[in-house]
């Protein structure tokens, strides 16, 4: 019962948060934008380090076989036949070393329930895949989700292959649980305010 109450509370908070984002028309100040950029860069550094520590092959691939990397922090929920997630992140091209700040929205039709915070690291193995991600940003995949168990550190790692050619994906769950089966469609797009 406590888990159900927690899930319902988180769903209400998420819905209110999404609706407040849609209604917000006040532009951010320069200071707010700089602070948000710094927070995203710090999240990306910490997440990348965690994934590379867990998956040494990912670190080697990032250094030797990739043209860029993207890191996103997301929050998702699933209730009955519908779910969604939203987040923010940054893409780095190894050739330009310039960050491109991005946002993410995901729909998860399919049976399931729960809430979860998670982070994703993408490795791009071709310039074409990197540019396509930044410019159009669609990622599709199927998930059989069963991340209801917690490790001692409160982290759950999941490695997977993106359905996009020349893109590898690593996922790190921070907290919460989503159980279910879904087909996901995520849209990654440039954050016009931060770029």
UniProtKB/TrEMBL annotation:
UniProt xrefs under Pfam families: Ysc84 (PF04366)
Ysc84 actin-binding domain: residues covered: 109-195
InterPro entries found in the cross-reference section: Ysc84_actin-binding (IPR007461)
Protein name: YSC84-related protein
